[in-house]
Amino acid sequence: MSFQIDAFGTLVIAVIVLFIGRFLVQKITFLKNYNIPEPVVGGLIAALLALLLYKFFGMSATFSAEIQNTFMLMFFTSIGLSASFVKLKEGGSALFIFLLCVAGFVLVQNAVGISLAKLLGLDPLVGLIVGSITLTGGHGTAGAWGEVLETQYGIQGAVVLGMASATFGLIIGGVIGGPVAKFLIKKYQLAGKSIDNQEDETSAHANAAAFEYPRRTRLITSNNAITTLGMFSLCIYVANWMTKMSNGQWFELPTFVWALGSGVILRNILEHVFKVNIFDRAIDVFGNASLSLYLAMALLSLKLWLLADLAGPLVIILLVQTLVLALYTAFVTFHIMGKNYDAAVLAAGHCGFGMGATPTAIANIQAVTNTYGPSHKAFLIIPLCGAFFIDIINAVVIQTIIKLF
To answer: Which of 134, 234, 305, 309 has the most CB atoms around it within 10 Å of its CB?
Structure first.
């Protein structure tokens, strides 16, 4: 028996999932100590409950994809609207160095997937599916490339395999980021004490980056909220229009990339051409709310029984990929980025989009900084890298490898 949940029902359940996650993180020491994001905790509980209902009672639910997509687009739009060119300069050489770390891992991830696929007697392209297509690319990239590999390269079940692998990655990406950061922080004694989770406006950094203080009280008015909502709506409208216009063209890009790009352009035109004072507090509120709800809905919609369809060799590849990511972020990303506290937080973020998605990366670094203290550099670099540059790097690498095969 399958139930269809509409947009409002999906939103209500997602909020409940978030509250459950928040309650469990506050009450369970392990979850709090290892900085597991609240949406991931609540979402996993919901996904496990859905698995039990499916296995024992044959019941399943389909949640509104439209509202989930809307919150995803709002999240990426908030990154764009927060990207003032003045603030982008703050990333400087650190952003470029981090991009090199990320690009290096995309190559490593695909090398591991393809090598293990060959070793286990599978098509090398299957290793690519259980590589950066799904683990760095996420569900959207998995669906797009899965269809191509099925129709043009004869890889049967590529879409299902991609979705299952991306599901695994989304879960693991949100689980290992906190423990990796905790290991690095404790080993190198990078943070002496925790910070108060209940921050207020006066204790927050005046020039905070997007998503940097998710628990900070922000004073906004209805006029600010309406103006900000109008900006979000315009960016998403343009993104949907550009997606249709670019379909099949050389400049075709996913809708969320157009949303992010529209936000960057709108923000900087208003700020630097028309001298409009952008109200970042409202953008932060919209962005953080969208992030939490999107993550909850994404995990709520996971069909964990798809993972049961993965053959043993594919599970082996995914487990090895998890180990490789943890080692790479701890011993490559962390060291190259300076072996300091910011580097540890960046390592947690890299875990998020290395096997999950940019929202998972943001949630990871929020969980870590809520415990150990702020990292302005991480909140500047992770959104830019994870939401935009990583997709360009990944697309180039995937296309190059497929041409070789």
So the answer is: 134
